Amino acid sequence: MKDLSHAPFIEELCDTTDNMYRLGWNERNGGNISILLRDEELAPYLEGNDPILRDLPLAVPFPQFAGRYFLVTGTGKYFKNVSRHPDVNLGLIRISEDGSIAHLLWGYSQGGSTTSEIVMHLGAHWQRLQVDAAQRVVMHAHPANTIAMTHIHPWEDKAFTLSIFGTCTECIVIFPDGIGILPWMISSSPSIGLASAEKFKEYRILVWALHGCTVTGTTLDEAFGLLETVEKGAEIYMKTYLAPNRCGIDIGMLRDVAEAFTLQVKPGLLD
């Protein structure tokens, strides 16, 4: 296999992890990203029968992804180090025919495995592909304001979405399909991965209470943009929710925005 370190998708992922660390969303080894790669993207780097470096068992099999390739951040790896040492902190995997093994073809050169949230990632990819065949990115981070908001706000999809929509006009424009909320669960477990996958049937954005936020998108830019818009809304909410003269964007105003921008708002959100 040719060296992947300077492939365009690797360089873009390095830029993204640098930005996420700089913004404080991914402290230490917090957070993870996966990209479902297209065969044509990988063609210049694969030689037909590339050796398997290691077999990485999957806690939940995904036979529907047999033969598909994913670029995945590694467990225990720090986002601040990805751009300097992509071969250490990233891995290229191919899912086995029965879906129970991730064959490592490149990366994790100093040991380690895929992110511990790999079940969530694969489940999210599968559910979002049923909605939009172009969706290829799953991105998880720990943005402080979004987490802080879950300390004081009910964990209910519609209520949380409307509170974010009420902070600034762009939120409903950027994600009119809303935000899903998952109650607190033990992270890195198959159970939170499978529960998340169920929520991704409806949403591109999923907030894990007291933990973080996961988004999906067609590109790294799109996913990053969703994450930063949610975090901006949460920041405004946290700065204003106790203000005695707080106004906010009400349902009538949101309906006006939806009409002006011809938005496909999730049914029931603005009732």
Q: Could you explain the architecture of this structure?
A:
This protein has ten helices and nine strands. Helix 8 (190-199) links the parallel strand 7 (180-182) and strand 8 (205-208). It folds into two domains: 1-116, L-fuculose-1-phosphate Aldolase; 117-271, Class II aldolase/adducin N-terminal domain (L-fuculose-1-phosphate Aldolase, 3-Layer(aba) Sandwich), CATH 3.40.225.10. The protein is an alpha+beta fold. The termini are far apart.
CATH A-level architecture of the largest domain: 3-Layer(aba) Sandwich
Major β-sheet strand ordering = 2-5-4-3-1-6-9-8-7
Q: What is the residue-averaged pLDDT?
A: 96
CATH topological fold name of the largest domain: L-fuculose-1-phosphate Aldolase
Kindly state the number of beta strands: 9
The topology string of helices and strands comes to HEHEEHEEHEHHHEHEEHH
Extract low-pLDDT stretches.
Answer: none
The rounded Rg comes to: 19 Å
Report helical residue fraction: 25-40%
What best-fitting shape do the alpha-carbon axes yield? Answer: elongated
Through-space gap between termini: 55 Å
Instruction: Give the domain tally.
Output: 2
How much strand content do the residues show? 15-25%
Q: Given this structure, which CATH class of the largest domain is correct?
A: Alpha Beta
Q: How can the largest sheet be summarized?
A: 9 strands, mixed
- Helix-strand category: alpha+beta
> How many helical stretches?
10
CATH homolog superfamily of the largest domain: Class II aldolase/adducin N-terminal domain
